[in-house]
Recover the amino acids of this structure.
């Protein structure tokens, strides 16, 4: 661990936790960690460990990070565990000696191509081999400059030399690199490789390598830079390495990648270079160095770098590791304690997630059965999993299934199943892909014919890879396996197994690299060209091992970036438009260049349609500094208009403000229309738009008899009580029940009590409260023959009659607090309300309900007719609303913006399905069908001519001549909606601003004559003395 006095806590990575501490449970982290740049460090959790150091023992907390960060010892540990700071300083001294040695041999770490001295290689052909001359393949014009630049660089570095004639010629394949560059590769599979005599220099045995490293305490790993290209080829072998390009013939003077004998030739050379050095072993281009102690390690490292410098070799410093306590090498972990199996060999099995369905379970069982002969009592072990495959058995992953699954994974990773890598035995690599993962298994074919796995690997596909075609996913699994097991496969001939038959031809060992294939296939074919393999197509039942890994892949997360993003290059694209850009674009614009010719050269105007917009402004046009101006406004060419519109709308200003700004600086034909379009099409502006203008007032149909339509709602809490309110639409008679509980059951009981007094109404109107739209409530209303109408969600004005009464009742109860109990005050309010003239009907609810007045100390004045009074009040309401609102009509299929009350966006795009009422619609949104009031919808296109106020008035006046009008229940479907004869129809409003203001318009056949004449009140005549 590294000591860090600036950190309070001690940290280890999740990889260290899985390797050493996985037996300890993780708890959620109680601390937020941040790096020195301020970025947050993601944590897996925390646990407590027993720490022993220098005969000291303490139980201390340790935090586990998600990322692969170095282990840190913080102040809490340093306070509990006393360190020997002399040893720490000694380690620091060793580190300074290492830097001294690296500085001494800095020539080895130069970023250049090395040139191996004293050793050259020679290629040998099979007897009676004939030269092969392949013509050059065409190179796309778009990448020709890059190919030519790459060829020139290789010639300059001494890798290539141009020639005029040759009996040998190999075509090249330019492969694009991820950084945008080009890599030139010779397709030697079709020319030299088939006739080369393979070098018979053995690669070092694993046991010999590890024996040479025994006794080492720390290890250093050195990686050579482009190892093959550092080796020179003898003159007589140059002609065989000729490549044919569109620029002519070139010969390799160095050993290129893709030659069959290259691994053996390089291994022989590097063994010769490093011979006699103690504590140093090399496998191809990877060099390991160690020592019994730090001093010996430094001496061996110094001697190794000195030998590399003498032979002119170069090393990639960024890929080297120095003084590591352990290193992973050829599938094993080497440390001071000896040789261990690398956890990466079995990670794909250990971390495989449990199956989520029967298909994944079958794949896992197929993997187990493939190696079943090495696992004892497999059938008994898998019995809980086999039970899930029964057709009559429902899928349920139980604790016994998880236990069997874990035991099966432990058995599969046991030493009895796995075998160590042995260069003497043939190697087989099985690869497979599924729609969500790739997997590979590397195995040995033992002398008795048995197949024993060496290591497993798998990973999930990222978002881009899931979109690959099936052929590309299968090819990806092959390349993934080859890269993962590169140290096992490179320099050896192996058998490649894939269950995708087309790949046996496309990626076959004797097939040329496809020149017209996608870039990724070219890169993959190039990677495989450096290996010697045979490809086979197995049957599905013989491919269960790789198939199981691909269908239960190890989840791989892309690591978060540690860098703090300060500036993006894309900011250049959003830079403001300048006069220089306008000048350049104006010269290239055919219309503006023609207009500038009129002004500068005085040429006559043509008859082009695009020029007509400038003819009327000809006298006001001028040219200044190469830019065309209309007065003081710059005329913007077509190529810059879109960019300037985005710049204009950067602050998300409205249409009017954008036009005002634009008219002060620039102009082009139809600019105003484009400004309107960009503002109306801005998705960000749509999400935060205000509500639309209120819809025209559409009163409810006035029922012809009491208790025909009842509006219900809940009020409260008020004084810790809830109230169930029911108001008759004809008489405005209110019923109020104090509710101790507002459950559906209690609500049905209260409504049943009302229905027992007044009978069942024909219709009920309510909002969408859970008690009022439950299945029990619907069943209750249907059983009583009541049609249930619900308002649009989040639009209480639809149920305005009940909502307005709730406000009046709450106001009365609040103002009467302290003047009696709640029941007493409520009863007094209801008596006064029922006996007082209603603002809409101009008669008392009791008189309209029962055709009589309740007993009171006041006599109500009788209007001549209720109908005339209500008609006048209704006309006033329509006139009042007509001055503020606009009539909007939506047709089915029209695109609108619907009010969203769920997510973070206020408005979402929708399509009108049907009109379910005069001001109600059903609309289709991304996640289903919504019901919305007209006030909750916005038009996304210009609205047609507004309906005039007179049209509304005439429509209402002539409503009696229309046949029946249906009120559709938008909550339930398939119900027949009763109709009301409209010969005496009157309507009522759904929302009123004040209690005493005209609220609803009614019409009734009830006519009452006053029993007494109107009382005339006069002031008394008093005597004066």
């Amino acid at each position: 661990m590294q000591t860090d006095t600036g950190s309070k806590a001690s940290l280890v990575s999740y990889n260290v936790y899985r390797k050493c501490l996985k037996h300890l449970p993780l708890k959620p982290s109680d601390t937020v960690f941040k790096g020195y740049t301020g970025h947050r460090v993601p944590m897996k959790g925390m646990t407590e460990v027993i720490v022993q150091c220098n005969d000291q023992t303490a139980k201390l907390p340790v935090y586990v990070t998600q990322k692969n960060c170095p282990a840190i010892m913080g102040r809490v540990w340093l306070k509990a565990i006393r360190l020997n700071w002399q040893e720490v300083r000694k380690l620091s001294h060793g580190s300074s000696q290492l830097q001294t040695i690296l500085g001494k041999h800095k020539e080895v770490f130069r970023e250049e191509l090395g040139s191996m001295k004293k050793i050259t290689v020679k290629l040998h052909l099979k007897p009676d081999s004939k030269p092969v001359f392949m013509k050059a393949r065409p190179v796309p014009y778009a990448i020709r400059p890059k190919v030519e630049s790459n060829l020139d660089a290789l010639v300059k570095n001494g890798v290539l030399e141009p020639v005029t004639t040759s009996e040998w010629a190999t075509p090249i394949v330019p492969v694009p690199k991820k950084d945008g560059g080009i890599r030139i590769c010779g397709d030697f599979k079709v020319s030299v490789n088939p006739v080369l005599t393979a070098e018979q220099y053995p690669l070092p045995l694993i046991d010999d390598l590890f024996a040479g490293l025994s006794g080492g305490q720390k290890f250093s790993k050195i990686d050579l830079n482009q190892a093959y290209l550092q080796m020179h080829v003898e003159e007589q072998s140059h002609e065989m390495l000729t490549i044919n390009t569109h620029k002519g013939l070139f010969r390799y003077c160095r050993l290129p990648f893709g030659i069959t004998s290259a691994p053996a030739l390089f291994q022989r050379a590097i063994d010769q270079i490093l011979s006699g050095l103690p504590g140093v072993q090399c496998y191809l281009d990877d060099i390991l160095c160690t020592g019994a102690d730090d001093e010996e390690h430094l001496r061996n490292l110094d001697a190794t770098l000195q030998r590399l410098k003498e032979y002119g070799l170069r090393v990639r410093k960024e890929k080297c590791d120095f003084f590591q306590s352990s290193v992973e090498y050829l599938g094993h972990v080497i440390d001071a304690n000896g040789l261990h199996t690398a956890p990466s060999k079995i990670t794909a099995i250990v971390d495989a997630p449990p199956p989520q369905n029967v298909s994944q379970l079958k794949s896992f069982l197929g993997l187990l059965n493939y190696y079943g002969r090495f696992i004892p009592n497999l059938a008994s072990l898998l019995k809980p999993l086999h039970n899930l495959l029964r057709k009559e058995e429902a899928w349920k992953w139980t604790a016994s299934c998880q236990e069997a699954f874990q035991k099966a994974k432990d058995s599969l990773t046991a030493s009895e199943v796995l075998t160590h890598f042995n260069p003497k035995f043939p190697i087989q690599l099985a690869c497979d892909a599924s729609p969500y993962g790739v997997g590979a298994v590397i195995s040995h074919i033992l002398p008795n014919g048995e197949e024993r796995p060496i290591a497993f690997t798998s990973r999930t596909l990222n978002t881009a890879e899931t979109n690959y075609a099936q052929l590309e996913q299968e090819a990806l699994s092959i390349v993934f396996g080859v890269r993962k097991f590169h140290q096992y496969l490179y320099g050896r001939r192996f058998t490649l197994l894939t269950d995708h038959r087309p790949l046996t031809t496309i990626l076959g060992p004797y097939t040329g690299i496809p020149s017209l294939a996608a870039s990724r296939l070219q890169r993959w074919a190039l990677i495989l060209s450096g290996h010697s393999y045979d490809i086979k197509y197995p049957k599905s039942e013989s491919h269960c091992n790789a198939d199981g890994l691909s269908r239960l892949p190890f989840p791989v997360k892309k690591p978060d970036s540690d860098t703090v993003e300060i500036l993006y290059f894309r900011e250049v694209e959003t830079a403001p438009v300048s006069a220089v850009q306008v000048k350049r674009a104006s010269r290239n614009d055919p219309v503006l260049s023609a207009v500038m010719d009129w002004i500068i050269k005085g040429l006559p105007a043509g008859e082009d349609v695009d020029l007509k917009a400038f003819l009327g402004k000809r006298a006001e046009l001028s040219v200044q500094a190469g830019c065309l101006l209309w007065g003081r406004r710059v005329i913007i060419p077509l190529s810059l208009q879109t960019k300037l519109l985005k710049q204009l709308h950067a602050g998300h200003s409205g249409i009017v403000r954008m036009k005002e700004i634009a008219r002060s600086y620039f102009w082009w034909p139809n600019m105003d229309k484009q400004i309107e379009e960009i503002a109306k099409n801005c998705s960000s502006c749509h999400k935060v738009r205000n509500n639309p203008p209120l819809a025209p007032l559409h009163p409810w149909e006035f029922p012809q008899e009491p208790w025909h339509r009842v509006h219900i709602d809940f009020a409260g809490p008020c004084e810790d009580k809830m109230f169930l309110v029911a108001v008759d639409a004809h008489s405005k008679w209110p019923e109020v029940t104090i509710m101790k509980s507002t459950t559906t059951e209690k609500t049905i009981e209260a409504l049943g009590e009302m229905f027992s007094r007044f009978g069942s109404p024909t219709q009920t109107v309510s909002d969408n409260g859970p008690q009022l739209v439950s299945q029990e409530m619907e069943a209750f209303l249907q059983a009583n023959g009541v049609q249930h109408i619900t308002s649009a969600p989040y639009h209480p004005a639809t149920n305005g009659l009940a909502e307005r009464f709730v406000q009046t009742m709450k106001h009365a109860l609040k103002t009467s607090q302290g003047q009696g109990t709640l029941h007493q005050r409520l009863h007094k309010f209801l008596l006064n309300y029922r006996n007082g003239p209603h603002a809409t009907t101009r008669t008392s609810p009791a008189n309209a309900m029962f055709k009589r007045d309740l007993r009171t100390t006041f006599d109500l004045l009788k209007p001549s007719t209720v109908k005339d009074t209500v008609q006048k009040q209704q006309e006033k309401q329509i006139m009042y609303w007509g001055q503020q609102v606009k009539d909007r009509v939506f047709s089915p299929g029209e695109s609108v913006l619907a009010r969203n009350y769920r997510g973070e966006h206020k408005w979402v795009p929708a399509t009108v399905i049907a009109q379910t009422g005069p001001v109600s619609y059903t609309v289709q949104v991304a996640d289903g069908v919504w019901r919305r009031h007209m006030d909750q919808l916005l038009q996304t296109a210009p609205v047609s001519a507004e309906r005039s106020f007179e049209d509304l008035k005439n429509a209402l006046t002539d409503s009696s001549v229309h046949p029946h009008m249906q009120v559709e229940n938008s909550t339930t479907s398939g119900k027949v909606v009763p109709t009301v004869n409209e010969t005496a129809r009157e309507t009522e409003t759904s929302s009123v601003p004040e209690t005493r203001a005209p609220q609803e318009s009614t019409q009734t056949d009830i006519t009452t004559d006053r029993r007494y004449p109107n009382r005339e009140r006069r002031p008394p005549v008093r005597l004066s003395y």
Remarks:
- The chain has a mean pLDDT of 77.
